[in-house]
């Protein structure tokens, strides 16, 4: 019996693979690879695997994590060789390593995530930086956020959930931000994008904005052997 | 990033299930379009989830891509939300593999699986920026070809498709595309290539024929316009499918397809000779795959795809000459792999029950029977070799073994049908219900019975190709009558829409004039007509009015045996004399036995070896 963590990308067109379809992609890859993946007990057994944080449809990422269990031990290299050719274009394995998670899970140990939010604009970098400073210095940043319990969109103050934020303009405008992402406190980039666009009157349609997850931040209890830094 | 990729990215963020439009699936093929002689796109005129469930796509995709100089990519019709955005942002229909606009390819090919997809085909061309009319497409536009079962009567599409490839496509399609590659290298014009293509077996180029009509609107004759054009085009028939191309590493759909499972074709064709069935005629002769080959393909496919279900494909599973050995072998293979086996269209005899009992140890889902007609007289007319006793015995066995949901399929509007035959349907239903009472101590228990009735549509190349279809009014009356008769506790009654059957019927036996109807309907906005949410009957009514097409001429008119039929230009292998003989036997309610007992003289064995001929004799 062994536990592994697999870090992968979801870039290019693969960002349009839904979370449910992604689960199928991995389940099937394990099966085709002939890997002795452990199944849950119960009436409808399913493979013991889970993603650290589901990624919204349409977001790309260079920092996705999947944990899974196998009946016997495998070398990282063997797993890499088996699984790599079975994944769709854009889903690329960055590393696989054994990790004793026990009762914990990557999901429960996730606390924040870093995003890169890109859009094209004529506004100069200086002006954007100024806008961002104004935006973030509001005493409260009010945005429509979908409430976990009621599932309704409600106005809330998201300021406390933004850990870091900055803007630059190498070619396009790029907002880099670190947002709470976990079971205790969670902020999706969506309310941030929507409130920033509204505050700055930039008037950029949502589909002109690209979001990429660049890093997941875990508690100190999660330590990787590989260098976990893909910026 | 190309211009299209960039534009596409903005569209995909706004549509439902964008996974349908991205390609890149495991086992999809990447080649460099610049390094291939012929760039071809296989177009399925329906949405991704439907098209990807179709085995023929996977077969032809492999057959073409296995050839070095050829590249086969795929395209499907987008859903409404995507189509709107594509039109708004000027994004043409593109191939999933390399995101190349269809209009930049050498050739695009449509598979015609059902008549109600014809408008979708036109819409796909239009979405590609390709003129729908052949005559408006110059040498800069791709060649548009089509095949599939509906290509056996190609005439409704004659103005839109440059050429049809009739019959088995595994070799015919790649051979044709290689011929196109040579022509392209030699700088041949499209017109010159089409003249050359006429000589390729199974290829029909409608533009090279003129059709003359009688005063009553029936066809007088076909006149070839170039010397290369043959008087009839014979369907391509593979003599054997044992070694025919078959994908053991099919594309694994990105978005869950309707049928997400491993499939093996066990045999092609059918020996039973039901007189309403087009597939039973146009896929003759029966060609089987060996048990060993089926096992091998099934195993490889399951290993390569991780599918959790294996299904056999044929017109009647248990008619494989070594079915018992096959079924038991597959059962032994799939059990340890945690794969469920499904055996569609089984003849429900003792053996079938044993096998099903083993397959469905825990879960006994429904069992389906297709008596097709309510009385023995009508079943004899349609040559459906099933007796009521067969059904009752089998149902009794099923209920005893623990199945409790029985489904029955019937057709209405069959030639020679009377209301007594509809009463017969109700009788069968009541008798089955009674059997359940008997076995269940007079209680209904968990017993459920579903009765589905579909409208008979006369099809080309069947003994009923000359028959009149019932009018929509008559169908409606029959449905009402049956609804009343089948108001029985525990019985669910379903029937098909009355109107779609009429449009389906017009194209199933349509001549060249019906292309006007198709064009008008598409112009008025018809597409994806097979979907109830897209199908708009008022459009079709309007299209009949605009095009001046007399619906009754095609649907409710009985043809005489000596009428020149629009599909006489195609020779599907079964002779017209045989079809006529079968029609005349139907009028006398005489049956024709299975051709595994004796040859029935359909003519196919004059063209190709018929391996099943008389094998059950003695």
What key attributes describe this structure?
heterodimer; A: 231 residues; alpha+beta; 5 helices; 10 strands; B: 618 residues; alpha/beta; Rossmann fold; Transcription Regulator spoIIAA; 20 helices; 19 strands; globular
Explain the overall architecture:
The complex is a heterodimer of chains A (231) and B (618). With 231 residues, chain A is an alpha+beta fold. Chain A folds into two domains: 2-103, Pseudouridine synthase I, catalytic domain, N-terminal subdomain (Alpha-Beta Plaits), CATH 3.30.70.580; 109-217, Alpha-Beta Plaits, CATH 3.30.70. Chain A contains five helices and ten strands, in the order βαββαβαβαββββαβ. In chain A, the strands form two sheets. In chain A, strands 1, 2, 3, 4, 5, 8, 9 and 10 form an eight-stranded mixed beta sheet that branches. A two-stranded antiparallel sheet of chain A has the order 6-7. The two termini of chain A are 33 Å apart. With 618 residues, chain B is of the alpha/beta class. Chain B folds into three domains: 3-234, 3-Layer(aba) Sandwich (Rossmann fold), CATH 3.40.50; 261-359 and 588-618, 2-Layer Sandwich (Transcription Regulator spoIIAA), CATH 3.30.750; 364-513 and 549-556, Transcription Regulator spoIIAA, CATH 3.30.750. Chain B has helices spanning 3-12, 48-51, 55-65, 80-88, 118-127, 172-185, 190-197, 279-282, 291-305, 323-334, 350-359, 376-381, 388-401, 419-439, 472-485, 498-508, 514-523, 537-547, 551-554, 576-587; strands at residues 38-44, 70-76, 107-111, 143-147, 163-165, 203-204, 209-213, 219-224, 233-234, 262-265, 267-268, 287-288, 309-313, 340-342, 367-372, 405-412, 448-455, 491-495, 570-571. A six-stranded mixed beta sheet of chain B has the order 2-1-3-4-5-6, covered by helices on one side. A four-stranded parallel beta sheet of chain B has the order 15-16-17-18, covered by helices on one side. Chain B has a three-stranded parallel beta sheet with strand order 10-13-14, covered by helices on one side. In chain B, helix 10 (323-334) runs parallel beside helix 11 (350-359), helix 14 (419-439) packs parallel to helix 15 and helix 17 packs across helix 18 (537-547). The longest helix of chain B has 21 residues, at 419-439. The mean pLDDT of chain B is 93. Classes of the chains: A alpha+beta (231), B alpha/beta (618). The interface between A and B is medium-sized, with 27 and 23 residues.
């Amino acid at each position: 019996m062994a536990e592994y963590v697999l870090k992968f990308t979801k870039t290019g067109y693969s960002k349009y693979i839904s979370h449910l379809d992604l689960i199928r992609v991995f389940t099937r890859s394990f099966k085709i690879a002939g890997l002795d993946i452990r199944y849950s007990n119960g009436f409808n057994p399913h493979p013991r695997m889970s993603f650290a944080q589901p990624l919204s449809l349409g977001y790309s990422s260079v920092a996705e994590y999947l944990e899974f269990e196998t009946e016997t031990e495998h070398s990282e290299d063997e797993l890499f060789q088996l699984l790599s050719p079975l994944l769709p274009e854009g889903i690329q394995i960055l590393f696989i390593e054994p990790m004793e998670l026990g009762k914990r899970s990557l999901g429960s140990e996730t606390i924040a995530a870093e995003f890169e939010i890109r859009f094209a604009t004529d506004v100069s970098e200086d002006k954007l930086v100024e806008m961002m400073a104004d935006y973030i210095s509001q005493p409260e940043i009010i945005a429509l956020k979908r409430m976990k319990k009621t599932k309704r969109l409600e106005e809330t103050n998201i300021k406390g959930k933004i850990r870091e934020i900055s803007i630059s303009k190498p070619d396009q405008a790029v907002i880099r931000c670190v947002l709470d992402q976990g079971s205790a406190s969670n902020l999706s980039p969506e309310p941030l994008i929507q409130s920033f666009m509204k505050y700055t009157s930039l008037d950029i349609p949502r589909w002109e904005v690209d979001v990429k997850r660049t890093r997941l931040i875990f508690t100190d209890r999660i330590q990787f052997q590989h260098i976990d830094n893909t910026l | 990033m190309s211009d299209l990729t960039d534009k596409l990215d903005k569209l995909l963020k706004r549509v439902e299930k964008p996974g349908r439009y991205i390609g890149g699936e495991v086992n999809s093929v990447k080649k460099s379009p610049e390094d291939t002689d012929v760039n071809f796109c296989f177009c399925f005129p329906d949405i991704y989830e439907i098209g990807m469930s179709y085995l023929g796509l996977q077969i032809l995709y492999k057959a073409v891509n296995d050839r070095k100089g050829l590249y086969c990519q795929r395209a499907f019709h987008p859903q409404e939300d995507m189509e709107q955005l594509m039109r708004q942002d000027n994004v043409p229909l593109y191939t999933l593999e390399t995101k190349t606009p269809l209009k930049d390819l050498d050739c695009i090919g449509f598979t015609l699986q059902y008549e109600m997809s014809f408008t979708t085909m036109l819409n796909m061309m239009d979405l590609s920026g390709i003129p729908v009319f052949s005559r408006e497409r110059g040498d800069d536009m791709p060649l548009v070809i089509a095949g599939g079962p509906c290509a056996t009567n190609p005439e409704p599409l004659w103005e839109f498709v440059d050429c049809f490839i009739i019959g088995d496509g595994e070799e015919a399609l790649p051979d044709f595309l290689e011929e196109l590659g040579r022509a392209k290298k030699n700088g041949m014009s499209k017109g010159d290539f089409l003249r050359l293509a006429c000589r390729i077996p199974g290829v029909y180029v409608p533009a090279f024929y003129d059709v003359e009509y009688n005063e009553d609107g029936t066809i007088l004759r076909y006149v070839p316009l170039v010397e290369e054009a043959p008087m009839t085009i014979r369907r391509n028939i593979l003599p054997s499918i044992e070694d025919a191309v078959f994908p053991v590493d099919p594309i694994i759909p990105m978005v869950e397809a309707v049928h997400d499972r491993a499939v093996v074709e066990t045999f092609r064709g059918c020996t039973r000779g039901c007189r309403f069935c087009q597939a039973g005629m146009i896929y003759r002769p029966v060609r089987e795959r060996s048990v060993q080959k089926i096992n091998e393909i099934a195993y490889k496919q399951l290993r390569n795809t991780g599918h959790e279900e294996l299904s056999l494909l044929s017109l009647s599973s248990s008619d494989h000459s070594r079915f018992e050995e096959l079924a038991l072998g597959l059962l032994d293979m799939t059990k340890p792999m945690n794969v469920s086996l499904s055996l569609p269209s089984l003849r429900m005899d003792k053996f079938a029950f044993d096998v099903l009992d083993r397959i469905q140890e825990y879960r006994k889902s429904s069992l389906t029977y297709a008596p097709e007609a309510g009385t023995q007289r009508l079943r004899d007319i349609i040559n459906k070799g099933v007796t009521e006793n067969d059904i009752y015995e089998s149902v009794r066995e099923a209920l005893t073994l623990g199945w409790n949901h029985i489904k029955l399929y019937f057709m209405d509007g069959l030639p020679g049908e009377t209301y007594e035959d509809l009463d017969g349907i109700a009788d069968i239903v009541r008798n089955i219900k009674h059997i359940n009472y008997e076995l269940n101590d007079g209680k209904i228990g968990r017993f459920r019975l579903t009765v589905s009735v579909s409208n008979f549509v006369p099809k080309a190349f069947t003994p009923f190709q000359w028959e009149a279809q019932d009018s929509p009014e008559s169908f409606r009356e029959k449905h009402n009558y049956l609804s009343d008769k089948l108001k029985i506790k525990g019985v669910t009654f379903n029937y098909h829409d009355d109107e779609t059957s009429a449009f389906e019927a017009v194209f199933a036996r349509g001549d060249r004039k019906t292309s006007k109807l198709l064009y008008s309907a598409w112009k008025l906005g018809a597409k994806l007509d097979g979907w109830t949410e897209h199908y708009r009957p008022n459009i079709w009514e309007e299209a009949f009015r605009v095009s001046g097409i007399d619906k009754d001429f095609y649907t409710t008119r009985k043809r005489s045996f000596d009428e020149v039929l629009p599909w006489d230009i195609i020779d599907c292998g079964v002779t017209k004399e045989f079809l006529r003989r079968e029609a005349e036997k139907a009028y006398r309610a005489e049956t024709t036995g299975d051709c595994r007992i004796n040859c029935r003289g359909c003519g196919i064995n004059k063209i190709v070896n018929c391996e099943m001929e008389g094998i059950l004799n003695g």
